[in-house]
Design brief:
The complex is a heterodimer.
Chain A lengths: L1 H23 L14 H21 L5 H29 L5 H15 L4 E2 L6 E2 L20
Antiparallel strand pairs in A: 1-2
Chain B lengths: L1 H28 L2 H30 L6 H6 L6 H5 L6 H22 L8 H21 L25 H16 L1 H13 L5 H31 L10 H26 L3 H23 L14 H23 L16 H33 L7 H24 L7 H24 L5 H32 L3 H11 L1 H21 L5 E7 L4 E5 L5 E13 L6 E13 L2 E13 L5 E4 L1 E4 L3 E10 L2 H5 L8 E9 L2 H18 L5 H8 L12
Classes of the chains: A mainly alpha, B alpha+beta.
Chain lengths: 147, 684
Amino acid sequence: MALFLGTAMVAAAVVIFIIQPVAKGIHASLERAEDELTETEARKRVALLALRDVEYDFLAGKLDENDYRSLKGELTAEALAALEADEKAREQVGSVGPEDVEAEIAAIRMGLHGEAGAGCPDCGFVNESGSRFCSACGHALQAQVSG
Amino acid sequence: MTVLGEFALWIALPVAIYGMFLGFFGGKTQRGDMVLSAERSVYAVTFLLTLAAVGVIAAFLGDKFQYWYVASYSNRDLETFYKFAGLWAGQRGSLLFWALLLSFFSTITVFQNRNKNREFMPYVVGVLQGIFTFFLVVLLFAKVNPFEKLAFMPADGQGLNPQLQNYWMTIHPPMLYLGFTSFTIPFAFAIAALLNGRLDTRWIVLTRRWILLSWFFLSVGIILGMRWAYEELGWGGYWFWDPVENASLLPWLTATAFLHSIQIQENRGMLKVWNMSLVSMTFLLTIFATFLTRSGLIESVHAFAEQVRIAYIFLAFLGTVTAGVVVLILYRLPQLQSENRIESFLSRESAFLFNNLILLGAAFAVLWGTIFPLIAEGVTGQKISVGPPFFNKVNLPIALVLLALAGIGPVIAWRRASKRNLRKNFLVPVVGSFAVSAALWIAGVRHGLSLTTWGIGVFVLIIVAVEFWKGTRARARIESESLPIAFFHLVSRNRRRWGGYIVHVGIVLIFAGIAGASYNQDVRKHLMPGDTMDVASPWGHTYHLTYEGLSTSIGRGQRNLDWQAIALISVRKGDKSLGNMTTEKRKYTTADQTMTEVGIHTSPEEDLYLILSAVDDLSGVLSNNANAQGIDLQVLVKPLLSWIWWGGLVLVVGSIIALWPSAERRRDLEEEKPKEVAVPAGAA
């Protein structure tokens, strides 16, 4: 008898637990959470990480300068495309970021388009715009755009 | 408790079916209440399966031999520890155990994602509940219910196969099962992505750590199984290409391929269909492995299964899933197009692709060698077996190319490697590898395959070492850190990458250990007490063994032991004494055959492995006749064997580093990004 009662209670508890949301209309969210990456954001992130990696490979001495420049050029173009695609996607959903974010994006774009180059304060070599380190002597360049 | 457990199994089936339908339907119609209800059904199934498992364990601990499963795998004298492990000792329990482990992983998944990744969850739950439904149907209707009762109550059970009474054996199956079941989670997310149409890399990013975790468990499970075979089966080997061993290797091969190919999709947006296929293939192979082990289809060391009927249910499930995946991939084909092409044969993409093809080739060869005997038997009616020579012949060249790729992949450039790039990165490792090979040749190593293996191994080790050194040096310079700190930060900022390199080192050690087998020594001699025997090691020294005599212990009956005959051998290596070693014959009350327990002395350069192959006069020995002491002793010297276990340990360390939760990704980007391409805080 006790066994029968026990099993019946287990069964009843399970059924109530499962049915409750439907019976009482408790809804789980099916929306994407705000801090999750959208497709375009994910793409942008990958492009930026690839840029980071190529820079690392160069600094670690795994890429020589010619390879580095040509790869970086390609990756920069892709990163830029990804940035623009993401921005477009944002405009479509109508969520415009705060002003400072917009300004930052503009600055990034400037940097990627290569409109400004910087001389190395140490050796004077004129580096590709947006370089973090001098290609000639490895001296850290305080970035033109503060991050 | 046991009755409640059986009852729980019956309730779990309708709950799983309900959850499956509500998951899919709720996802399709975007009904949040249905989805929540489906998610709760996962918790409910976990609870019910836990009750069922507790019921089985309670039946074992309580010696309830009226249950067929308990009577077949336990007896009163069995140690409590092994009674507890009875849950996975046989087919019936292990099917329940499979479902139980999956339910734990499913619960973790549902709980972790209760507030995020909501677009995936309805379908993930649907897929998981579909798989539970399958396993519950098998358990309840395929005549493999662990709660099935006998018509009578036997006084005692038949006991557990003595070969399974080994500590490795109690953790090896759970490890493999953890690997098999945890791979279901990435599969569920992949199917969810196909269903909800979110086909970018999101599903991969979400399941990366599950994939690694599953791979980790599979690797450890396989290595533990090898260790068990080495210590317990008493013939000096660790791998026999047994169907069940192959069955565990198959998903490992495809999971390894998957682990590498997702990096191409993540970085270059390629191979989307391939990755979907690989994740499904791996899942299907985990089911196939369970099926092969637990259906009784193939007789092997492990297959202690009884019926063939269950095979049809498994095959139907495999067929349905395969068809479903193919249809879904075809349906989504337009969205699964590659975003890029492979630009050059000399690139990391093509190295990864090559690695994939080779792993798949190996998987196919192993699969073919495993099921060919079945097909042949079906066609010709004669049972044939495909032995180790086939597998070794096919897989050795494959394995060597794979080993070389473990070195090439990490340093070759993405997109296209220029000649300069190749020279810069490969000159030192190639020269180093040839130098070491030449040194080995001069030292007298003439076995071509082993020499090649060690040469390639050195190549990979140099590459990994140089990678670590270059990375640390660059980081130390950029961040003005000391070398140890830079090293620590380097690894902790990209655990997957550096952990992966450490795993490669582990693989090299394992290969090096396997290659040592070319220099195995095997000597067998008849000995009387006081006789000596010398065995030469390929390293140049000699082992002097003196047979001291045979001692017996009879009929104590503890741990089901009937008798033991223990040969005592004192061992000297050159002039140095290594003390005494023993090897024995054993008879258990629960088994007909006598078992051999081997003696192993391990050192970094080689293992000394003693096997008591035969006793001249067993009945004389058992009646303590002083003249009945003659034995046949087989002595194996196995160079570098322990490197396999050390390699396994390194592999574990590397996997754990790769798996270790990394700090929030966003922070990584903030800190490491090139400054000029700063990511807006809210966007990444």
